[in-house]
Amino acid sequence: MKMTLEEIAKIIDGEIEGERGTVIRGIGKIETAKEGDLTFLANPVYTKYLYTTKASAVIVNKDFRPEKDVKVALVRVDDSYRAISKILQYFHKEPEKTGIDSWAFVHPTAKIAGDVYIGPFVYVGENVEIGKGTKIYPHTYIGDNVKIGKDNLIYANVSIYHDTRIGNNVTIHSGTVIGSDGFGFAPNNGKSFKKVPQIGNVIIEDNVEIGSNTSIDRATMGSTIIRRGVKLDNFIQVAHNVEIGENTVIASKTGISGSVKIGKNCMIGGQVGIAGHLKIGDNVKVGAQSGITKNVKDGEILIGTPAIPAQNFRKSAILFKNLEDLYEEIKRLKAEIAQLKSLKNE
């Protein structure tokens, strides 16, 4: 695909500094882009590459001021990261596929809308409903009574257990499991554990994206709910009866225990652990590798295990790195005190 710089600027509402007719044939990283590529500058760490890049044009923020001459065309926008994201949608589109492959199994009771793609070795169970424009790639399992809306993209080897509900414009990446049993076991005379039946389901609302190898457990009773606009990274565990609020983003290897309620517009870093039955408010930010052990109020910014306000953690970090020096100082003072006591006793 190719576009002129002028066409690109119209899409992202940008202001061009340079040749408007420059032809763009691809998109690359600022440090490795080649002639004909479009790139962007969002992180100041990469500013040095602006002066050496071989790209034909660079998207920058409107307030960016170069420290020396720039040889490439610039496109100034309000937010360069958001702008390149928009352009990527034009240069990278999923191939158009429709139809049900002859090697797929679709139960006679399933209702399949038009323009759907179902790849080889997909299993579609009883009473399943799949909406218009949805694409399901090979080796995916769709259990009985699953309802899937319109324009979804479900990649290979996804398992969607019975009774799951999926909205519209949802992307689920390979290896993810939706609706597996919650981790429910009752102690049996203190010597063994008896499984508690998990009779609920999973509900995934519109515009959600779920990374690869993520697991979302069905509710013990009721529903595990992923609200609209949520973005989940790879390798995340969402336990039974969890609810994740609108437009919350969660990074890789986070584990969310049962019955946790997470508010909307939260940002949770990688490898965070959240204890069960907690409530996390709206607009909360949690740093990577934090451990959440109690309820969190709206707007809090936390880090550490157990998690504390980020401002307090930064102050504590100064002490952490000086602990060895403080320890040596204490040893020296103890020795001086012991020496003074011995002189006094003499």
- Approximate helicity band: 10-25%
- Report the principal-axis shape: flat
Number of strands: 40
- Taking strands numbered 1, 2, ... along the chain, how are they ordered across the largest sheet? 8-11-14-17-20-25-28-31-34-37-39-40
CATH topology of the largest domain: UDP N-Acetylglucosamine Acyltransferase, domain 1
How does this structure look, described?
By secondary structure, the protein is an alpha/beta fold. It folds into 3 domains: 3-91, 3-Layer(aba) Sandwich (Udp-n-acetylmuramoylalanyl-d-glutamate--2,6- Diaminopimelate Ligase, Chain: A, domain 1), CATH 3.40.1390.10; 158-306, Hexapeptide repeat proteins (UDP N-Acetylglucosamine Acyltransferase, domain 1); 320-345. It contains 4 helices and 40 strands. It has a 12-stranded mixed beta sheet. The chain has a 10-stranded parallel beta sheet with strand order 9-12-15-18-21-26-29-32-35-38, with no helix packed on it. A hairpin with a 3-residue loop joins strand 22 and strand 23. The chain is flat, with a radius of gyration of 27 Å. The model has no long low-confidence stretch (mean pLDDT 94).
